Amino acid sequence: MIPIVSLTHLISVFVSGALALHLFRQYQQNPSLKIKLFAWFYFLFAISWLIAATPGIFSDDARHIAIFNIISFAFIYASVAVAIYIPFSFLERHTLGLIAVVIVIIGGIIFTVGRIFYFQNSVVEYIPPFVYWKPVFRGWLRFMTGAINAAASLVFIAIFLSLGIRNRIQHIVYYRSIALAAGMSVLFVATIVVQLVATPTFLRLATGAILVASGLLLMAHGIMHEHKTISRNGLPE
Fold first, then answer.
1. How far is CA 15 from CA 33, 35, 46, in A?
2. Residues 6+ apart with CB under 8 A from 32
3. pTM of the complete model
4. Which regions form coiled coils (predicted)?
5. Burial of 129 by CB count in 10 Å (0-12 exposed, 13-18 middle, 19+ buried)?
6. Which of 170, 218, 180 shows the shortest CA–CA distance to 87?
7. Mean pLDDT per 10-residue run, the chain (237 residues)?
8. Across-strand partners of 30?
9. Of 204, 98, 96, whose CA–CA distance to 142 is shortest?
10. Which residues contact 50 (CB under 8 A, 6 or more apart)?
């Protein structure tokens, strides 16, 4: 049987991991808070998807898979915490950014404790030639996670769209802002597909993984375009 969801997760692992490595290298060459934040966002995202890819690749035990799933979501919350801080750092509203980070972290703690308290083994689903281990947890935990991810995505999108519109005559800022907003919009759609559906199927999760990879690439294109243009032209960041 082919663990199709795990294999599609590996796409996100490869994309986000490669982008994180590239951004960390860029940061070493030209230290920048923006680059550092994005590098950590991609790194945490890569770890979460790597752990999520364990079913069918590193283990097929239902209990182990459920444990891996809980850990994976913990890293997802960590990556969202970094992501929600990024747009506020661009606005120099660091206090608001930290408040948003705290809210996400509290949500992550509630989710993790809830998953442990209501622990249930993952359920295997066969759709020949594919196999999928579906995580089982309370509907309110799924909804909370989807709502937090969606809210963080919408804040990110709104701020960068605003920055892009306000700086239309500045090509670098406009291009970067629109690319970041567009990339996060794709991630937002992925959140809707995966998290806000009551009982996600392996097809929805596979689709979500492909959308995630696309969104991550688009976002990285925006931030790297800005960084490369600034480095080439010697413009202030």
1. 22, 17, 8
2. 26, 227, 237
3. 0.86
4. none
5. exposed
6. 180
7. 72 88 87 89 92 76 87 94 94 94 97 93 77 80 87 94 86 86 90 60 70 86 68 48
8. none
9. 204
10. 9, 13, 17
In the chain, what are the domains? Answer: 4-233 (1.20.1070)
User: Is 213 in contact with 11 (CB distance < 8 Å)?
Assistant: yes
Tokens standing for residue 50 = 């790597």
Q: How far is CA 13 from CA 36, 43, 83, in A?
A: 19, 9, 17
Amino acid in the structure at residue 162 = S
Instruction: Give the whole-angstrom CA distance, residue 137 versus residue 143.
Output: 11
**Residues 6 or more apart from 105 whose CB is under 8 A from it?**
77, 81
Residue 126 belongs to what H/E stretch?
strand 123-127
Distance CA 237, CA 228 (A): 11
What is the predicted pLDDT for the residue at 4? 67
SS3 assignment, position 120: coil
Give residues with Cβ within 8 angstroms of 214, minimum separation 6: 186
In what helix (H) or strand (E) does residue 184 lie, and over which residues does it extend? helix 171-194
